[in-house]
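Minutes, project huddle
Topic: does the predicted pose make sense with AHM bound?
PN asked that the exact inputs be recorded in the minutes so nobody has to dig through chat later. Recorded below.
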Amino acid sequence: MDKLITIERHLIDRERELGASGTFSQIMYDIALCAKLIARETRRLGLTNMMGATSIMNVQGEIQQKLDVYANDIIIRMNSFTGRFCAMASEEEDEMINIPSQYGYGNYVLVFDPLDGSSNIDTNVSVGTIFGIYKRKTESGRGDIDDLLRCGNELVAAGYVIYGPSTMLVYTTGNGVSGFTLHPTLGEFILSHPDIRFPHTPKYYSVNQANQRSWNEPVQAYTRWMQGEGVNPPKKSLSLRYVGSLVADFHRNLLEGGVYYYPGDKKNPNGKLRLVYEANPLGFIAQAAGGYASNGNGPILDMQPDQLHQRVPLFIGDKTLVLKAEEFARK
Ligand code: AHM
Ligand code: MG
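Predicted holo structure (tokens), as shared on screen:
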């Protein structure tokens, strides 16, 4: 690497370009620090008592893993006292997170999935953190639920951290997607992937195909089309890759080209993934990288959530492949 551009340097450069106040940069440093703390635990997982499940069931009806609890706790604690947020919401918390009365509050709002793909933790498979940042909607005081139930196209920034063979932080403010790799000895996030865009020719589709029998016919036909059946299938045949960690599947498809989908089915018409914590932030990143996110019928980013933990069918990644899913749904 010729030139080391740290995340700090990158944010300062952006601040100058935009004439920004610096608050957003401070938020990103805090998130980067949370990522380092979580990465430190993922790296030594088998050596500490952080593996395995707790006995706590979260609002999603899933048993929390110890690392879920750790990651959630770190993000809440590191962002509660800074005076930059007026409210937060986490996939692991039943209700919105209020900023404690002893601390000040600010104009931003944070939504996050502290540890996505946590069923993979104990087998040393990549997991991630997903976050979205909004400007508050209410005018004063501590924030309320209206600050958190927002359309994805109101995001001012979104990103994810992937804890894989290396730890990477990828984020966008809607204009260009930048990827940073955590340097293992410097302990700094270094710009390693400037201006990430989906490649022209996709390679992969990612879906839990074990669920195929419960999908509706358009989703089944779409899947067969990606396997080469029907009219004008993809020019270059696609391979199936499915990690079962949304961040890891999304990240691979972003760099190599492809689509991830978790459709609804007869039992769960809204699928599994959460609009506020997963679909919107990743949809915002996909859009900034030339991709697209859909609920199967239209843009994810246009959806107005009515509940914090609302689930949504998700098709995300290469724009042509996602639009094709909508085309099958219309037939
Ligand atoms: P989580 O946020 O509780 O980890 O759940 C979301 C995860 C995604 O990361 C992943 O793509 C999906 O659930 C996997 O679900 P399944 O095991 O049904 O394929
Ligand atoms: Mg998740």
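Observations noted during the meeting:
- Residues 53 and 66 are 5 Å apart (CA to CA).
- The two ends are 50 Å apart (CA to CA).
No decisions taken; revisit at the next huddle.
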